[in-house]
Design a protein that fits this description.
With about 240 residues, the chain is of the alpha+beta class. The protein folds into two domains: about 180 residues, no CATH class; about 55 residues, Winged helix-like DNA-binding domain superfamily/Winged helix DNA-binding domain (Arc Repressor Mutant, subunit A). Helices cover about 25% and strands about 35% of the residues. The strands form two sheets. Strands 1, 2, 3, 4, 5, 6 and 7 form a seven-stranded mixed sheet that branches. Strands 8-9 form a two-stranded antiparallel ribbon. β2 and β3 form a beta hairpin. α1 packs across α2.
Length: about 240
């Protein structure tokens, strides 16, 4: 899949897509749907990004999973569902003028990781428990195209984001069952841990650790078993 994603990305950018759909979203939607599948399929009141030849529903979601809840429940009642969550492990920013002339480009200091999945699940922590739902986190490199049109957010000084394109594929992991999420917990079954100890052992920020444990507790992959001072203590569930 990696080579074909890059080889066909340019063709997919020119394909028909929904309004305001990024090239990144469109590329992944077409590729994961695969040969023999269909894109933009109406399913009752909803529209699936794709339906594969084997009947699996495909949804590409870059942001929060909360808006997907009702849609995914509907699709899951009919068959298997695969949610593709692209995470930008590296990003190049290109800035253009109004005449589409490249002014400059730079590397973004931001680097995403598999831990970003807990941002997406923060307001939909029970989504992974829906039977038949698989989440695939795709680590990719992207090019973000911006234009100096004076219409963008103040923090970007009026520069608008025009598009996001896939520039390189790195790898992906698949999470199909609650126990698959235990890959994020580097502790043994009966070993107690806290937000801080998870942060230190996994080399992630404390806020990331806190969000992860919130989601994993809701999923019942881990449980709170008490406190040490002001810190909650956790154990793996399975």
């Amino acid at each position: 899949m990696k080579k074909s994603l890059l080889a066909e990305a340019q063709r997919y950018r020119k394909s028909i897509g929904t309004k305001n759909e990024s090239s990144l979203h469109r590329t992944l939607k077409f590729q994961y749907t695969g040969e023999g599948g269909k894109n933009e399929v109406e399913v009752g009141e909803y529209v699936a990004d794709g339906v594969r030849k084997n009947g699996e529903y495909i949804e590409v979601q870059t942001g929060s999973f909360a808006p997907l809840l009702k849609k995914v429940k509907k699709f899951a009642s009919l068959g298997k569902v695969r949610i593709i969550h692209p995470v930008a492990a590296a990003k190049t920013i290109e800035v253009y003028d109004k005449d589409n002339k490249l002014l400059y480009k730079r590397k973004s200091p931001a680097h995403g990781s598999y831990w970003d999945i807990f941002d997406a699940l923060l307001h939909a922590p029970l989504l992974p428990l829906i039977k038949g739902v698989t989440i695939e986190i795709a680590l990719v490199e992207i090019t973000e195209k911006r234009v100096k049109d004076g219409k963008g957010a103040w923090r970007r000084k009026g520069v608008s984001i025009q598009d996001k394109e896939l520039s390189a594929w790195r790898e992906s992991i698949t999470l199909s069952k609650p126990k698959d999420y235990l890959r994020f917990i580097p502790f043994k079954k009966n070993e107690e841990f806290t937000v801080k100890s998870l942060s230190e052992k996994s080399k992630i920020k404390t806020d990331v650790s806190r969000r992860a444990l919130y989601v994993l507790t809701k999923m019942k992959a881990v449980k709170r078993v008490g406190k040490k001072g002001n810190a909650w203590v956790y154990l793996r569930q399975k």
